[in-house]
Amino acid sequence: MSFQELSIRETVFNRGVSRRDFLKFCSVMAGALALPKSGAAWIEAALTAPKRVPVVWLELQDCAGCSEAFLRSNNPTAADIILDVLSVDYHETIMAAAGKQAEEAKAATIKAGGYILIVEGSISLGDNGVYCCVGGRSSEDLIREAASNAVAVVAVGNCAAFGGIPKAKPNPTQAVGVMDLITDKPVLNLPGCPLNPVNLTATVVHYLTFGALPEMDKLHRPLFAYGQLIHNNCERRGHFDAGEFVRTWGDAGHRAGWCLYQMGCKGPISSHNCSVVKYNDGTNWPIGAGHPCIGCSEPGFWDLPTYSPIQLNEFLPPATYPAVGEVKGTVTPEGAAVTAGAVGVVAGAALAFGYTVMTGRAKGVTPEVSQEEPSEEGHEHH
Ligand code: SF4
User: What's the gap in Å between 220 CA and the centre of ligand 1?
Assistant: First the structure.
């Protein structure tokens, strides 16, 4: 039996993946896609049928970080499914072919149709596209041709989704994202810097299982991965609710894992599941490592000041979330002023302070914004 006739399940078994690991993969994907309990069985059935989806992966104005993130995935089934099982017919970084041979493989896939086009990097429109050419052809020319016969286009990373760092002011190359150019095909965005490989694998598995792209938000991001604010699932959220903020790099609050809002965290305005899925096979994520979220799943994040607090327009807790922790004491104007003055942005901190007040009010207690240096032993909340 040829490679093309084998099911994904048989292919991964042939590569030494055990049935137990395969079923675990199906369960992980069902969880990532927020499917009901029976979802793992649907995925298993879909991956048991002999079905192939060719992939063409274009790299345009990028740093190859999304390809690197995907290739560094330790989960063998992720790499198996995308790289071996799906038939990646063209990928400038990893394909064995080169030159004429590679271009012929891409042309044959485009001509046959029925493939998924994955795009990494932005498209340069400035000066007739001279800032990003492959084989003497502009990025716009390449993507228009590659998208022409695709069943769907998946933009991986913030550059392909929204223009990313090439589009940062003053955008010298007139960079744009995929959805700015391709309007006659389904386009799904997986922004992030880099993309989270789990979300690409889950998107492909969804396509194989249901024959369609997952449900998306208005920015073309799949709801399973971008349906929640990072802030809503952050391990430091309890400290935000309690008014416990890091105020200086390396202070006791930073060492104790307090909230990074006043250090510029963009988690309250960024939708992504990295607080749940994390990176490097669930090892850690930026906030877990003590750095504020930079908002890499949102358009224009490179133009936001990384270490300045954002203004919170919606600071009331969602009704579905329980109050966190027991807050006691009295709020003093001096205490609030110190909190605000610590970073020099009164508006943002005042809103955070207001949030704390509202949280306490909901519980019938008068809250306090703590000004004490926490002890490292007493505040290990995560
Ligand atoms: S502001 Fe940032 S660090 Fe603080 S709870 Fe929200 S997402 Fe987490």
Answer: 24
**Tens-level pLDDT at each residue, the chain (382 residues):** 444 556 767 776 777 777 887 788 788 888 888 888 788 888 888 877 666 678 888 999 999 888 888 776 665 555 555 555 566 677 777 676 677 888 888 899 899 998 999 999 999 999 999 999 988 999 999 999 999 999 999 999 999 999 999 999 999 999 999 999 999 999 999 999 999 888 988 898 888 888 889 999 999 999 999 999 999 999 999 999 999 999 999 999 999 999 999 999 999 999 999 999 898 878 899 999 999 999 999 999 999 999 999 887 655 555 554 455 544 444 333 333 333 333 333 333 333 444 433 333 233 333 333 444 444 443 333 3
pTM of the model: 0.77
Whether omega for the bond prior to residue 194 falls within 30 degrees of 0, making it cis, is yes
* Distance of CA 164 from the midpoint of ligand 1 (Å): 23
CATH number for the domain that contains residue 240: 4.10.480.10
Q: Is position 130 within any domain?
A: yes
Q: Quote the ligand 1 centre to 380 CA distance (angstroms).
A: 16
Give the type of residue at 2. Answer: S
Atom of ligand 1 nearest to the CA of 230: 7
Closest atom of ligand 1 to CA, residue 245: 4
Q: Give the chain's domain count.
A: 2
Q: With respect to residue 188, please indicate whether it lies within any of the assigned structural domains.
A: yes
Same domain, 204 and 276: no
Are residues 266 and 215 both part of a single domain?
Answer: no
- 37: buried, middle or exposed (CB in 10 Å: 19+, 13-18, 0-12)? exposed
> What range does the domain containing 75 cover?
3-226
Residue 123, strand partner residues:
176
Q: Is residue 166 part of a domain?
A: yes
Pocket of ligand 1 (CB under 6 A): 230-231, 234, 236-237, 240, 259-261, 265, 267-268, 287, 293
Sign of the torsion formed by the C-alpha atoms of 307, 308, 311 and 315: positive
174, 140 contact by CB (below 8 A): no
CB atoms under 10 Å from CB of 4, counted, come to: 8
Ligand 1 centroid vs 40 CA: distance in angstroms?
Answer: 32
